[in-house]
């Protein structure tokens, strides 16, 4: 049994770092990839090559090859197949609601979407579920279906300003599991995914995984579903979303977004898939590489209506500075 005080400690430490807090906007987290340190900077700024640190850690994490990764040709994930897949939970421990997805990218951090960092009805997320495939009735006392970690710190991208859809990326720092018999986060069943390298993605095949709705306004799925998608040119999304409001997409589509789907429709991510990874299996390296974070879409699975993902490589330095500080 965990000590009763643990939950209180976890909540007390829950800290949300976001744009709205002036003190948090430090140059070190708002740097753009490749930008070099200016003489006037008072903050220590690293001169790391974007993506190099993530690549180094990728080599460390891939040593434990998951049991069945890359084998699924169907639409339902096997247990252990996506050892980095996370569900993001809201509400109290006795009745957690899983409304978003995420990806474990180190032994302490889960990558997700900034729009998942606050729910209008239940506030900020408090829990991360790892190692689960079925979500029905998963509670903090049911360790057999996965393990639950408290979220200790929410680090939203400093330039995410809801309701605008830009910079829709967040990091959740997690604490030790509160469920019995947790597995280490570098084991066969549970381990971090690699982050995207600087790749040209349009035309490539990718997988999106999530517990989102199976159809628009339909039921959410209790099983972790796999969607086989193609990365499309941004112009395809531009055309598909040309009627979207100025408030959410005032600058149009930008290179830090990815457009993915299947034309003509049917396969898509949907409500409840927010924050979940868009990834690809690296055959020789026995791991997944996360290319995108599920951000927004329109009517799921509609012909010519792909969805939009936050492009992970566009934020690689921001992620590296938080997850693996120099
Ligand atoms: C989920 O919990 C409810 C209430 O405890 C129960 O009635 C239901 O059968 C459970 N469903 C599953 C699939 O275990
Ligand atoms: C990414 O790759 C492109 C094309 O090879 C290159 O022009 C660009 O400088 C690279 N960016 C980074 C941050 O390495």
Automatic annotation (TrEMBL):
Residues 27-48 are annotated as: Disordered. Keywords: Signal. One of its GO terms (biological process) is proteolysis. Residues 68-324 form the Peptidase S1 domain. One of its GO terms (molecular function) is serine-type endopeptidase activity. Transmembrane segments: none annotated. Residues 1-22 form the signal peptide. SMART domains: Tryp_SPc (SM00020). InterPro entries: CLIP_Serine_Protease, Peptidase_S1_PA, Peptidase_S1_PA_chymotrypsin, Peptidase_S1A, Trypsin_dom, TRYPSIN_HIS. This is Peptidase S1 domain-containing protein.
